[in-house]
Structure formats: C-alpha cells, structure tokens
Amino acid sequence: MKKYTYSSVLTIAGFDGSGGAGIQADIKTISSLGCYATSVLTALPIQNTQGVRKIYPIPMEAVADQIEAILDDIFPQAIKIGMVHTPQLVEIIVKTLSKYKKVPIVFDPVMVATSGHLLIEEETINTIVQKLFPIADIITPNMDEAAILADMVVKNLDDMHIAGEKISKLGCKNILLKGGHQQTSTITSLLFEENGKQSSFETNKFLTNNTHGSGCTLSSAIASYIARGESLNKAVSLAQEYVYKAIENGKDVVTGKGNGPLNHFFNPDKLIKNELV
C-alpha cells in the first residue's frame, strides 16, 4: 500500500484568542491552502478585535522545547516566524533552529501595532537584524516597520523604493515591503529579491475595518505556497491574491466590536497528499 505525507508548515508566533491574527490566523491560512499546520507559541497576548490588553510571556525553555518537539517529529517544508518581542526570544529561536536542516523561513517582523505604538524595544530590533535576518529567506515588513528598519519616513511608493534598497543592505535575502498603509485607492507592494530583481504587486483597496491579521495571513500564505513547491516570486504573488480575496469575502461581516478578521475559508483547498518516497 502506498504511503503519503502532507506538505507541512510550522508557525512560530504569538496567540490571538479572538481568532483573527497570530497563530490562529496562521493555522487557518495554512490549512485553507492545503498544508498541514504545526505551531510553536512565543507569547500569550490577551487581545480581541479592539486591541491588545496585556501580554504574558512564555518561558524561553518552553519555546525551545516546543520547536524541538515539532522538528523531531513533523519536519516542515517551510517555517513562518511572527511575534518575537524580546532579544532572548530571538536568540533561542535562532539557536534551536540551527540544530536542524535548513528549510525556507518567512519572517513577519511585527514591530508596530495598528494604533502606531511600538511593540518591541530597540535592543530587540537590533537582535532581529543581527540574528534573524540572516536565516530568513524573506521578510515582510509593512510601511511603519520599514520606516524603523530603514530609519526614514515611509509614506508613499517612492519612499518604499528607497526604504527597500536600504533594508536590503541589512543582511536579509528577500524583502516584501507591504503597501497596505498607502492612502490611495490602489495598494502597491514591492518585492526586492536578492538577485537584484524587483517586482510590484497591485490590488484595489477595500473600505473595510476587517483587516485584522492580514500581515500574519500573508506571511503564512507565502510559507504555505513555498511548502507546496512554488518559487519565491510565485509564492508571493499567490499569497497576495489569497489575502486580497480573503479580505474581499469578509469585508461586510461584523465579528466583534473592533477590527474584524479576514475570511480565511472563502475557498479552502483539501489537504494535499504527497506520495512518500
């Protein structure tokens, strides 16, 4: 009898009990794109659609133990890393992953809340650049995060081009600079590849508050498409399309009293079975 396996994606991220962002959004995304989702919890934020109330830390040893437990058993084809809010957390993740065979890593550098408040300290940002950027195959900052990384104001597409070039010199391989905060009817995101190639992705902007977790969703979608065997450029393109449709299909739904989630399951794939060699 033939044996099969699923394309697997590991998400290393924070919690969102309201189900729209963090590990919950990642698991929904990975699952809806036909991959098998595993997860490692990095922090326990107490939040809902209206915002974060408090963040409880997870012991560093517990984070390392979680990673080892998954990688020893269900080794992924891609890894997505989200909320890492302390230098110690960055270092333990990088150190633990270094014990295993390298797989593609998508890193979403969550640094700024929707409200504009900085979520992590300067020391953590420096550690991310020094330790996490070199092992990430692609990072996905939004315009606010790009402004921090490039140390400049990023308000429009011209600024994004300059910021992307600056961030490219920080040691990361590929950068998807997201344009969701542009004050225009059309949103343009920019992909800077390590070979020097640049690509742009344009979508229409929806008038909706239901974009909570869109960054988490995009990064885990990229990881999922990579796990399915797509090239980086194609994975980014398909992930952008998925997020666009997830927002479109959830734009008129009321979930909670604040910023609602995307509709991750607008057209889910079945789990993809690959023949075990």
Automatic annotation (TrEMBL):
Kindly name one Pfam family recorded for this protein.
Answer: Phos_pyr_kin
Give the residue spans that cross the bilayer. none
Q: Which GO terms describe its molecular function?
A: ATP binding; hydroxymethylpyrimidine kinase activity; phosphomethylpyrimidine kinase activity
The name on file for this protein is hydroxymethylpyrimidine kinase
What's the gene? thiD
Domain Pyridoxamine kinase/Phosphomethylpyrimidine kinase span(s) in chain numbering:
16-263
Q: Which GO terms describe its biological process?
A: thiamine biosynthetic process
Any one GO CC term of this protein is: cytosol
What are the alphabetically sorted keywords of the record? Answer: ATP-binding, Kinase, Nucleotide-binding, Transferase
The organism's place on the tree of life at top rank: Bacteria
Functional pathway: Cofactor biosynthesis; thiamine diphosphate biosynthesis
Q: What is its EC number?
A: 2.7.1.49
